[in-house]
């Protein structure tokens, strides 16, 4: 009796599962990388759209009038409320803010967290390390290609220019999304692929196990028949009907049994 470890069913099932794992692994490697890139790209486009909408709603001339120390004035508070409302409309946005040039530097003007107790800067607070995307945003919409570190956390950022009544660029608006949101979206894709792989392996294992079980059953029938014939029992009925190699083997057994019966009958008559 063949041990389960060395049985054809075990080998077929293991081999098929290994094949599925290899194919699934390669699929995951290429699919996850492409999907992650697309998710980040779509998130960047989402941020760009929100930055553009926010910039178009802001009054650039009012922002140009804001000076350090005016945080308690109505002009500032009105614009803060506007940015805060835009940030609250999308729960995944950490902060919306505006910047403008001051000589060779860039400084913050409005912080959407002013009224919620999460303000990080006042009017005129300089941006110590303006990114290339911030600088280019004076010429058009821009987005950070990678996550960046802000005082309020790691974020993905997009910018859009703020125009005055004459069409002159007054400053830029920045929209920051928590990096964990983007990473969560990527993780969801990865988990979905893992789940599909797992279900695929389970289904493949079940299918090959069922298939190999029927094959092994017929092989055991042939083994039992061969053992009976070896003991001189020719009263063996082989009922296997298949259209594959096992079926051919069963047909050969039937012919062999018939031949043995004829030979034994002939020998008996001669005696």
What keyword list fits this structure?
271 residues, alpha+beta, Beta-Lactamase, 6 helices, 6 strands, rod-shaped
Q: Specify Rg, calculated over alpha carbons.
A: 38 Å
Structural class: alpha+beta
Question: What's the total number of strands?
Answer: 6
CATH superfamily of the domain at 26-185: PAS domain
- What is the CATH first-level class name of the domain at 26-185? Alpha Beta
Main sheet overview:
6 strands, antiparallel
- Outline type: rod-shaped
CATH topology description of the domain at 26-185: Beta-Lactamase
- Can you count the helices? 6
The average pLDDT score comes to 81
Termini separation comes to: 38 Å
Helical residue percent?
55-70%
Order of helices and strands: HHHEEHEEEEHH
The assigned CATH architecture of the domain at 26-185 is 2-Layer Sandwich
Low-confidence stretches: none
